[in-house]
Amino acid sequence: MACGNLTAADQALQQAEALTRQETLAGQALLVAGMRAWYWLVGGNPDAASRWAEQVVFSPHTWTPSDNDVFLMQIRVYLAQQHSERTLDLLEQFREQLDRPGNIALAMEYLAAYAVALHQAGRREHVQAVMSRLLAMTEPEGSLRVYLDEGQPMKRVLQTLLTVPRGTQTTDLSPALSRSYVRRLLTAFEHHASRPAQHTSRTDASPLGAREPLSPQELNVLRLLAAGSTYVEIAQELIVSPNTIKTQVGSIYRKLGVNRRTQAIEAARQLRWL
Asked: Could you tell me which residues belong to the region Disordered (predicted)?
């Protein structure tokens, strides 16, 4: 779906749906159903996506990690329908479950959805604080996907950031906006919109196709990377030199077929290595 190849996405979803029925994997079945709802949104069937979203109910008291992705799929459906107030209520209700320092990739997805919902609701004074934090998290890694997945609503959010007077901050805690990074993200949107749909082969999908296992030490490094630790902090924790950590991180990236921390975290999550 990220490459615009809906035919291949439908085929992959049908295989995933068949596997969840065959193996009776209830938790995975809910996630696959959420992916199907996303497919309906992209493919122009919002009513079907809406029916799915209305049937899914979460509780902070029974929350499990497997709920994370499903909940964000539900949020994506509500954002597409511009149910901004309802979306904000849900995001604020489940903030503690999603905005977690130990799971950077999840926190970034949460902040992206939150910023779009705030923008849709006309709460522009809060958008800058949320986006400042998100940009500060993603700029060091050069992340693009978390923005592109939100589509045109996120593009509009980024455009409004360039109209904010320089040096303006919503709170003392929000970092200054990186206008050059915002412009770079907007350029990525233009490139993404102009490119033709791609037909990605299995050999191209390196994170999902990765199979070479990590060593126990590399898994320890990966977990600390996911927790947001710096190389120096990881070296101190594992009682090795920072140069050793750099070498091990390079090995992790090679095995996962990625070149950034956030990409490695997302690939490892999909492979259930974290």
From this structure: 192-212
